Amino acid sequence: MRDLAARFGVSESGVLQAKRAAGLVKATLDHSRAVPWKVARAHLQSGPATNLRNLSAAAQGKPPASERLNTALRWAQRLVDAGLDVAYDPEEGFREVPVEPGGRSHVAAVLAEAREALHIE
Questions:
Q1: What's the CA gap between 25 and 27, in Å, rounded?
Q2: Does 91 score more than 90 pLDDT?
Q3: What are the CA-CA distances from residue 121 to residues 33, 75, 95, 103 (Å)?
Q4: Which domain of life is it from (predicted)?
Q5: Are 1 and 12 in contact (CB under 8 A)?
Q6: What is d(CA 77, CA 9) in angstroms, rounded to the nearest whole number?
Q7: Residue pair 51/78 in contact by the 8 Å Cβ criterion
Q8: Could you report the per-residue pLDDT of 50-64, keeping only the tens digit for each?
Q9: What is the CA radius of gyration of the chain?
Q10: Could you give the angle at which helices 66-81 and 106-118 cross, rounded to 10 degrees?
């Protein structure tokens, strides 16, 4: 990008904008609804973070490989069935917590979006 920008006398962001306009850049998925926390680097590859991202990808029409998707679906369904949700702390990482009485769990919401996109009842 830097070389292209220098060659054509534009900024690197200008090159990126031109690539997007020409359809040469893959659209990136936005996982901010599924993973609304600022996750510390040490926790980015943890099971909960990975499962939430995989469910988010499915909800956005780009499901991961079936093994990863099935793992995420089973994990989320286990939590929902047990009345659990996830909470995140940058120091301690993810932990399972009971769903507040009368509340809806974050995991249940993410799971529902993925199931709807996948046409799973």
A1: 6
A2: yes
A3: 21, 16, 27, 22
A4: Bacteria
A5: yes
A6: 53
A7: no
A8: 999 999 999 999 999
A9: 18
A10: 140
Beta bridge partners of 95: 87
List residues bridging with 96 in a β-sheet.
86
Q: Tokens for 13? A: 């962001």
Q: How far is 5 from 91, CA to CA, in rounded Å?
A: 40
C-alpha–C-alpha distance, residues 114 and 60, integer Å: 8
pTM: 0.79
Residue with tokens 């099971």: 47
- What is the Cα–Cα distance from 25 to 18, expressed in whole angstroms? 9
- The DSSP secondary-structure symbol of 70 reads H
Span 62-77, pLDDT tens digits: 999 999 999 999 999 9
Cα 27 to Cα 52: distance, rounded to the nearest angstrom = 19
Whole-number mean pLDDT of the chain?
93
Determine contact, residues 74/99, Cβ cutoff 8 Å. no
12 phi/psi in degrees, rounded to 5: -60, -35
Structural contact between residues 59 and 87, judged by C-beta atoms closer than 8 angstroms: no
